[in-house]
Structure formats: C-alpha cells, structure tokens
Amino acid sequence: ITLKGNSELAVFQRDGDWDGALDLVVKAGDPGVRSLAANDWYRLRRRLEILKLSGASPSTFQVPYNSFKEKFESSEFDSTAESRERNIKDLDYDFICFFLSTQRLDLYRSIDFRCEDMLLDDGILSEANWLLDLGLMPNSNSASRAIGYRQAMEYLLISREQRGCSSSKDFYYFLTNFQKASRNFAKRQLTWFRNEPVYQWIDASKPMEQVVNFICDAYEDQTGELKVPRSLYMDKDISNQKEVRLLKAYRTKNRHFSSREDCDGIIDWVRRTQGEPTLSVC
Q1: Which of 109, 167, 177, 241 is the most exposed place for a label (fewest CB within 10 A)?
Q2: Could you tell me which CATH number the domain at 96-282 has?
C-alpha cells in the first residue's frame, strides 16, 4: 500500500504538480490535505497511506486527550486556575503527566556535547555514509530527514564531490549546523509541552532519587492532590532577565572539537572513505 501510494504521487511530484496531487488525495477521501504547506510531499504521502490503510482520513481519528483538549480550549471551560485543574480531572482516563527538563542553558550545553559524542568512533558519520551508499539522498525519507543524519549526509556529499577532500572549516560548519538544528528542535518541544495543561514540570537537574520518589508517590496517591514540591518545581516560562540575556548571548563551547587539530581524525576518515585514494589530493 505504501509503495502504491508513493507511485501514485511520484508522477505529480516529478512534474511539480502540487495542486494535482492535492486533488488526487481529496478525491480519495481526505479534504484536510488542503491545509498542508505547499510542496510538503512527505506529509501528503503519509496522509494517502493512512487513507488507504484505514479507509478513513487522519482527521477522523480521535483520542481521549485530543477530545478533552478541544473542550478545554473552547468557551465551555472556565479559564480560572481552579477550574482548569478540575477540568483536567474530567478526562476519561487517569493521566499523570510530568515533563522533566533542565534550565535552558544547561539543556543547550548538554545537547551540544551530545552532538559531539555522536561523531566519536563509528558514529553518525558512518551511518550517514551507509545511507548514501544505499542510494539515499539527504531529506529523501524519514531516516535521511532526521536531525544529524541530514547534516552528516550533506557534509559527506560535499566531500564526495571534492573527491574526499574536507577542511576543518567544512567540518565545523557541519557540526555547528547539527548542534543548532538539535537545539532548535528542543526549543520547539519545550514550546509544545508548555502549551499542554496536563503536564507538571519537574527540574530534572535535581537529584534523581528525589525526582523518582516524587513520581512514585504521585502514582500511588489516590487523591490526585499531590503537587510538585518547590524543591523540584520548574517554571515553564523564562522570567529571569539574566537568563534571557545569557540565552541571547549563548555560544557553543565544544568539549571534544575545540581546535583545528581535534578534527584531524575525522577529516582523515573522510579522505579515506569518501574519495578515490589515487585521486585524493587535498
């Protein structure tokens, strides 16, 4: 079914006929695709796949929390804090939802370090190389669209075009884009959870034993009145002006790749794997 859906849309995508592709999916039974961003072929294919697999458009599927949220955001619900808490308890299921995070600066620093770690040994570059060898291109499917893989594949493609040649400037450009894309994704996640009223925020930088004990206590509590203690509480919004200024001035400080010499091993690996040894003269 997936292959059939892809083949049906492939002709339209090849011809750049976005409107024609929309008409096809609308006639198949999903008028909601007209709200998609222009040329978002990935989501259009997914909508057609769901339609063919289930016989219904994605918009017809309802889950308890979504239906609750629609009511919660409508005029049917009182906007006072007390009423909001009471309405959350009216869910069909007993949700106990926590969101664990750290202060934004610490989170960004941790993300940058994690991106570096993924480049060590046979890391993400080797996997990106494997995807390219399979004939995949960056941003062509879910794997090559993933943060890190896309940037790594683009970096290796450029190196292949240069017969395996790569400079420290090329590498740091790739690493910077990888880290920036990862931080931006985390920021979008924070925004999403901030707008979800059923989540209680917990500061994950606190001792893990305290965090786990509180979550276990909340699970065992039958009253539903247990609140996150001040010692673990984390504010959803950044209200501290000092933190706002620090975020605006944030700059990456690499742990493993802090100088040109630190990336020599990776550049050598790129030279050996992405070019023709007899022709690679950088």
Answers
A1: 241
A2: 1.10.287.890
